[in-house]
Amino acid sequence: MRPEIHVSGDDVEMVTQLKNYLTKRLKYLLDMPGTIGIGVSGGSMPPIFTKALFACDADLLNWRRIRIFMVDERYVDKDDEQSNLGTYLKLFPPELAYVFVPIPICNDLSLTARLYEDNLRRILLPEQSGTSPRFDLLFLGCGPDGHTASLFPGDRAEHVTEYGWVGVVQDSPKPPKTRITLSFASLKFAKHSAFIITGAPKAHVVRAIWDRDNTLPASMARPYNDRLTLFVDEAAAKSLPSRDSSEESDSRSPQPFD
Ligand SMILES: O=C(O)[C@H](O)[C@@H](O)[C@H](O)[C@H](O)COP(=O)(O)O
Question: Are the beta carbons of 198 and 232 closer than 8 angstroms?
Fold first, then answer.
């Protein structure tokens, strides 16, 4: 099944598209029991995701049920300006800091990854019995090199945790060099994933995702259930097949919700 594609003309339109997607997913998830786990990325995503989330109707923002976690994090304290979690905490009202799954940065990188995995299991999936995570929503970015989260070409992530949900990277081509990241296995078990991608330098990555070209991590991270949505601006969409081309499939039809 092809990913669902939303092409936006500007940030305002993309925020509206994201808000509509979040609304649809939150309405469905709130009808289900359990914690709602939403994974987010860093880079340029924090402001646009935050705007879209707070544009949702207040009755959907059930903070007793919603927990937000980082799909990757730089190995820095949350007060460091490079911290993804720190960036979100600055954008959220301080009284909502508790909705973020903490990343216990300590002086041992592997221990940090193991502690984070423990938090993901304990806070997000208390009902989780198996070893594979079932995150409800993932919001992923990508780099022009095709990385997503902190999974870079060249298989640089080392698995150091009990369940392999979180890996460590010590030679990230994107600074800073040292990071923790969800693993491909974690990303691929998501119930729904969405990429937020803008800019012409990433158009070839968008096409690789569309084509299932698994030479790039961003394409390899597609969920097993194929429930994938792409939010792209016109520049990032420029390599996609045109709407009326033979390469087009029925991807624009609405996907069944789980
Ligand atoms: O910690 C990070 O750097 C991000 O999680 C990373 O995976 C990001 O999503 C991509 O590098 C895209 O970043 P931009 O959106 O800023 O291009």
Answer: yes
Of all protein residues, whose CA lies closest to atom 11 belonging to ligand 1? Answer: 143
**Single pTM value for the model:** 0.93
Mutate which of 49, 72, 184, 202 to test ligand 1's pocket (most atoms within 8 Å of Cβ)?
A: 72
List pocket residues of ligand 1, CB cut-off 6 Å: 41-45, 72, 84, 141-143, 148-150, 174
Kindly provide the ipTM of the predicted complex, given to two decimals. Answer: 0.97
CATH value of 1-31+119-238 in 3.30.420.40, 3.40.50.1360, 1.10.540.10, 3.10.50.40: 3.40.50.1360
For residue 84, give the ligand 1 atom closest to its CA: 1
- How far is 245 from 109, CA to CA, in rounded Å? 48
Please name which of 165, 151, 137, 158 lies closest in space to residue 216, comparing C-alpha atoms: 151
* Ligand 1 centroid to residue 195 C-alpha, Å: 11
Tell me: the pLDDT tens digits for 54-86? 999 999 999 999 999 999 999 999 999 999 999
